[in-house]
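From the pipeline queue, job 12 of 40. The input is one protein chain; the requested action is below.

Action: predict structure.
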Amino acid sequence: MNWISNVVRPKIRSFLNRRETPENLWIKCPDTGQLVFFKDVEANQFVIPGSNYHMRMGANARLKSVFDNETWYDVALPPVAADPLKFRDERKYVDRIKDARAKTGMNDSVKVGYGKLEGSPVVVGVQDFDFMGGSLGMAAGEAVVKGLELAVEKQTPFIMFAASGGARMQEGVLSLMQMPRTTVAVQMLREIRKPYIVVLTNPTTGGVTASYAMLGDIQIAEPGALIGFAGARVIEQTIREKLPEGFQRAEYLKEHGMVDMVVHRHEMRATLARLCRILCKAEAIKPAEVEQPAVTPPLLDLAEAPPAASPP
């Protein structure tokens, strides 16, 4: 009995309590196949050291990389119907939404933050591809519109990080209606002569490219980003011709005038701050003068929560 209690049971406990290796301990570079330690990639803003391949960034990590002191106010977004068409394919649409929310910690594919960029107030919208491919549905459309309306109210620039596979099929025509709605909202910002800057990340396709993602006063792309409406294979089958090397990639589009700049992620924050200053005719603020973003009373109904910072 002592042998069972003193030897067998501890062995069983140690086996059951054995710590498993995290799945994301190492990352394989899609470009070179190189294995890189996840923590090194995370510390490098999700850019693979050596190959400079730009991995996808989550919404919180993106906001953290843009705002001063990694601090911002989450903008409360209007609620929408969870499943307006009662859609079901292999699974129920509501079940897919629940899984996406559990995976990303987001309510939908777009998150909006308000804060300061090198001392100047800005509104930033981020599309997270991990949430159902960053697809554009009613909730995402409402988020983009609300962000643009807040920028109009606060008289600030609006920066949009786009990453999407297109419109969300589970919402049918209701998702397609977000294309003209967001276009009208962009025009509202133009009427007060404040800049709308779009950063195209990998990938940006479909209905998002056909609407707010290509309406920026300045179009920026990350290196190697796939940008287009239809896929390359569909285009080849339609025109029955072989497409050029690098077609629909950021560098190719810059050469052909579709985007204005291709900017490395390490230089993105400084580039955005400089563009906002130039387009708003504002003076540069010294680093010592950069403070935490302050919220004014009219914003409280939009961001009732305290300043949000990305989790470590």
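Job complete. The chain has two domains: 1-55, 56-299.
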